[in-house]
Design a protein that fits this description.
Number of strands of chain A: 0
Shape of chain A: globular
Largest sheet of chain A: none
Helix content of chain B: over 70%
Oligomer: heterodimer
Low-confidence stretches of chain A: 113-133
Number of helices of chain B: 4
Number of strands of chain B: 0
Strand content of chain A: under 5%
Mean pLDDT of chain B: 83
Chain lengths: 205, 69
């Protein structure tokens, strides 16, 4: 059984939606926040239910995704850290604004956006990553999330990988999503406890 | 925003945890800015020697750090 076959229907739809979201955002590859967007696009799934129980209901979804985008745009600096730097007299957002003015939107973003940034052109002979049809390649981070979701499912003695395991994986792997969600008090421990308490009934396989 | 506010207060203060976090964030930002500037310099035909000179590191160090991209 391949890993993908273990995914529940909502988890499968979420991963497909992650690719669509990444393509719509003109990203070069699927990143963890696209996986989060995919999960949030499935309102009935365990992950969305768990997030709602943690105070992150549908009315918060857009804000959370925006925060993730800002985190990346700042080159991996969270809101709290930006505030901390402000305390030292360093205005991160001003720096980012200035840099983007010169180099184009997303200049400090990781992974770099698909379009050549600002005045910088790709070196000759260097081609972009192929995106055949609408099949978005999965980035290293996002692949790591998938692998971690399998481990989480096994760890919780689940035979299938549900949306709740993808959420746990997002919370465990370092990155924008983890930063933003834990910043809102949504920790892997808490979510795990909710799952173990039976708050994530089996999703359709 | 409470966490953020606390951090902001502490950053200028003496709480090591938040102070260190601010420094780590700044270092991350610095690395990104450096990579961006080096990329631009290379695009404009600068040699690793010239880049190293400006960064205050050797030609080899500059190339080792940024050459793979």
């Amino acid at each position: 059984m391949t890993m993908f076959e273990r995914f529940t229907q909502p988890a499968r739809r979420a991963t497909r939606e992650a690719g669509t979201t990444a393509a719509a955002a003109k990203a070069t590859e699927v990143a963890p926040e696209h996986v989060l967007a995919g999960l949030l696009s499935q309102p009935e799934c365990n992950a969305a239910e768990l997030l709602a129980r943690c105070g992150c209901g549908p009315d918060q979804h857009a804000e959370v995704l925006l925060e993730c985008r800002d985190y990346r745009r700042r080159g991996g600096i969270g809101r709290a850290e930006a505030e901390a730097l402000r305390g030292l007299g360093i205005q991160v957002d001003e720096i980012i604004d200035r840099v983007e003015e010169i180099w184009g939107e997303g200049a400090l973003q990781e992974p770099a956006p698909l379009e050549p940034v600002g005045r910088m052109r790709r070196r000759r002979g260097q081609t972009g990553r192929s995106t055949v049809g609408n099949r978005m390649p999965w980035g290293v981070e996002a692949k790591g999330v998938l692998e971690a979701s399998l481990r989480q499912a096994l760890d919780l003695k689940s035979t299938s990988i549900g949306s709740e395991h993808l959420l746990l994986a997002l919370l465990i792997r370092e990155g924008a999503v983890r930063e933003v969600l834990t910043g809102r008090g949504i920790t892997p421990l808490h979510v795990r406890a909710l799952i173990q308490a039976g708050d994530a009934p089996g999703e359709q396989g | 925003m409470t966490e953020a506010t606390t951090l902001a207060e502490a950053a200028g203060g003496r709480d090591p945890r938040t102070g260190l976090r601010a420094v780590a964030a700044l270092r991350r930002l610095l690395e990104k800015l450096e990579a961006l500037q080096v990329r631009s310099a290379r695009e404009q035909g600068w040699s690793w020697q010239e880049i190293g000179d400006e960064l205050g590191v050797s030609r080899q160090a500059a190339h080792k750090k940024h050459g793979g991209r």
